[in-house]
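Can anyone check this?
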Amino acid sequence: MTAAALGKASRANSSVDDGPDLVAMARQAVEKTLSRHDRYRAGTRLRQLNRYLWPKERVGTCGRRRGQTVSLQRSSKGQGVSWSGIETCGSIWACPICASKVRAARGDEVRFYIEHHLDRGGYVTLVSLTTSHSWAENLVDVYDDVQRAWAKTTSGRPWTRLVEQYGILGPIVAVEVTCGCNGWHPHLHVLLFHWKPMGRAGSDMDLAGDLRDRWTYMVDKHTDRTALGRVGCDVIPISGEAGIAAYMSKVHYEMTRGDLKRGRWGSRSAWQVGMDAAETSDARDIRAWKEYVEATKGRRMLRVSKELVAWYGKPVTTDISDEDLAAVEQDGPSVLHFTGGLYDRIHASRSLLSAEVPIAFESGGLLEVLNLLRREISPNVNILANRCTDNGDQSRVDGAWASAPLIGLSLT
């Protein structure tokens, strides 16, 4: 974003407070997340649980089915290695490995619209919407009520008047699900793109107050719930030249990276529920995870309004399905190949070997992986070069394997 655009956005929102210290909030969010390696281990453990719960569904076979050759592939950005040559499920809700790739791409799409709108001198406001809920309710019921209330909020003549009053172009709506002592808590993070200032409380122009009134009324009218005032409709303007980058990081994190978030005030993210279930085998957590996966199946996590698309166009990833995004492999070179039989043994292991192998390569290279597999699978894991397939046409390395263009491992 240009300096002129940043200054324009800063001046345009000068009628509202700069809001909370989002730099500190972003820092705290990062501190609450797991390290990349720990997250990979936890995600692999959850994949194993999915395989047990849904053995014949795509989310249960993710990472199991493979091509003739499986490899570790390095990112061109140098951020570690990952598996290539395996089938993925593309579930943004149930598979943490696939979700991390899909959500990162969707987050870039959100950033695309924010930057374009601010560059045009517009305003962007982050609105978080929730309703009352209890532990005795099913997730589907609460989820459907929240969606219904939002649909009613953005329809009818009152909404049309708000659109005209504030020059609302359109929203981007993301869904997040957490679980706490009061049960399932699906809620919405809405980015509202508008052309006129949101104003201040008590004035004729008070977007925050108008949204709260509208949301509260529709929740009361169309559901058996309440919106709980400011808690039910939290409004944060994106403002201030120095804070725009921090706000955008906050928005990116809230809107699309639910897979990285930790619960607050005693609650757990849905991912935490699943990872706790996978780690402890607690029956209640397993039931909760099954309910979550089945309730969210087929639903969209992120929706971009057609008005935004018509005004700014679409990022290249918009028309790519979640399944295809998850199947995109690293853009760097393959660094280590595995015969299919060896990979099958790695994936079938209960000791998270499919996570430990890439971690070992990042830590100590080929020898670290070789020692790990000889210790965990068989001392008969050997180094191969030039070819690494299951057709028996393999050539063994005689001391010079480190410089061979294709290095592989096989179980003999």
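Reply from J.R.: I decoded it. Residues 40-87+333-411 form one domain.
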